[in-house]
Amino acid sequence: TEVGLLAKSYIDQGRLIPDDIMTRMVLSELKGLQRYDWLLDGFPRTVAQAEALDKQCQVDTVIDLDVPFETIKYRLTARWIHPASGRVYNLEFSPPKVLGIDDITGEPLVQRDDDKPETVTKRLQAYDAQTKPVLEYYRAKGLLKSFSGTETNKIWPHIYAFLQTKLPDVSQKDAAAPR
């Protein structure tokens, strides 16, 4: 979409998408999900986005994943893709059989601009500066729950147990599938 291409131009420069563009994209998608439970990842990241979301939707819970920036940077910069298929490799978790080569086609893998170390560092610094006030915003509303750690398999069971208190009808099968 036009707004999606505009968003991509910011991402490719290592910049965060401005509030008005991001809010327009997310709120447009949420209009079609009014009868469902949903989970947003990385939105809202500013108080202005949080306020816009609150005007359109009732937010029940906000989860903060407190993961050290070095862990996030390491994981993102280890990610490589096969552009034609969208296959994603991670040099630590799911490396290609031959470094830099797609397992199926034998074509070269590339690193997305937003996964390059200098871009990741800039984005994480901007994200931190903008999201601290959002965490305080939701903490003041009594909606914030934080989980700290560096490994998904250690954090996820705690998040899942917490989500079951919020959405008791969520089964393990449902939890593994995007909603």
Taking Cα atoms only, what radius of gyration do you get, to the nearest Å? Answer: 18 Å
Query: Helicity, in percent?
Result: 40-55%
Class computed from helices, strands and strand pairing: mainly alpha
Number of helices: 7
Assign the CATH superfamily of the domain at 60-166: P-loop containing nucleotide triphosphate hydrolases
Order of helices and strands: HHHEHEEHEHH
Distance between the termini: 22 Å
Mean pLDDT: 88
- Biggest β-sheet: count, sense, barrel? 2 strands, parallel
CATH-defined architecture of the domain at 60-166: 3-Layer(aba) Sandwich
Describe the global form: globular
Strand order of the largest sheet: 1-4
Q: Low-confidence parts lasting 5 or more residues at pLDDT below 50? A: none
Question: How is this structure best described in words?
Answer:
By secondary structure, the chain is mostly helical. It has a domain at 60-166: P-loop containing nucleotide triphosphate hydrolases (Rossmann fold, 3-Layer(aba) Sandwich), CATH 3.40.50. Helices cover 48% and strands 10% of the residues. It is built from seven helices and four strands, in the order αααβαββαβαα. It has helices spanning 2-12, 19-30, 47-56, 69-77, 117-140, 152-166, 172-176, and strands spanning 62-66, 79-82, 87-90, 144-148. The strands form two sheets. A two-stranded parallel ribbon has the order 1-4. Strand 2 and strand 3 form a beta hairpin. The longest helix is centred in the C-terminal third of the chain and has 24 residues, at 117-140. The protein is globular, with a radius of gyration of 18 Å. The two termini are 22 Å apart. The mean pLDDT is 88. Residues 79-114 form the Adenylate kinase active site lid domain. It catalyses: GTP + AMP = GDP + ADP. Pfam families: ADK (PF00406), ADK_lid (PF05191).
